[in-house]
Amino acid sequence: MALRLAASTTAAVPHDSLRMLHDRAMANPMAARGGQTALARTAVQCMFMLPSQSDKSWAAGARVRYDDWPATHINQTRFIHNTGNFLTYHRYLTWTYERALREACGYNGTQPYWKWFKYQADPTKNPLMDGSDTSMGGNGAYVEHNGTLAAGIVYLPSGPGGGCIERGPFANLTVNLGPINPAMRGMPAGVPDGTNTHNPRCLRRDLSTHASAPWHTYANLLNVTTGGPVVSSDVSVFQTELQGRPPDTGFRVCTQAATTPSAATTRTNFSSAVDPLFWFHHAMGLHPGPVARGVMGTRLARDASLSYTQRSDVLEMGATGQSRVLEDLLDTMGGTPACYIYEY
Ligand SMILES: [Cu+2]
Fold it and tell me: What PANTHER family is this protein classified in (predicted)?
């Protein structure tokens, strides 16, 4: 597996050292707590100024500390999407990112989440991404394109953006990694699969309603949490519903991150994390995670060999944090990192 990081040994983390996180609550979205998002934005900008810590043997293009997260996500993409470890991996990766905001950049809050159930009709009005000084930057400049074939099968028409971010704190931000297999028609091919080739360019976005309006609904939230005995009791069905049942239903947590409201830079799972909105989105997307206490799925997406995810599998985290055994992270309400209570 050439893409895989070098195997790492995982030392046990003392249980008690993690307890401090138990009552850490993900903050309300920007609309309710603008101050917290503004502080988070300042910390993110700090992450773009510190040097990368990733090993250049697999993350040659990583330049700044922020890049270490998309670099790891790119390197691991084939092992963490449509797989049995999907929820646990993304939950832990989001936590390591939040921890870096706090420990390296002086942030004293938690990763705010993007509440999907507001502004679905017009994401450009969401204070989180409306281009105001306290937002995470606005939409991209309008660039006419032919839309996106998300996940290779879900067609999303062109939205009102598509180009470089025009307004707000991240206007003209340079990102260094990706795109890989960009689904947005007309986008250059980008860099080879799974590689972290240096490819500096502006951060592009296309905030549109084509996926948010039909999919970001309370009906879908209920479907994956309390809806129907099958969905809420079977981890396999739950995961499938959460990640989206192509072509038209479900939350589409990760492909949605890569396709729907943002990340026109990528329009692909691989490098969706180059956009800082990725973390706000995942903080929301992992909300129903505690429903899933089991592990079911394969180690690779649509793996014909049916090599199944094991609880003893190691989650490879690169320079973002300590690699951990999956089983040690499963208790989302107990003594593991990423134990959150959501405030509404
Ligand atoms: Cu992902």
Answer: N-ACETYL-6-HYDROXYTRYPTOPHAN OXIDASE IVOB-RELATED, TYROSINASE FAMILY MEMBER
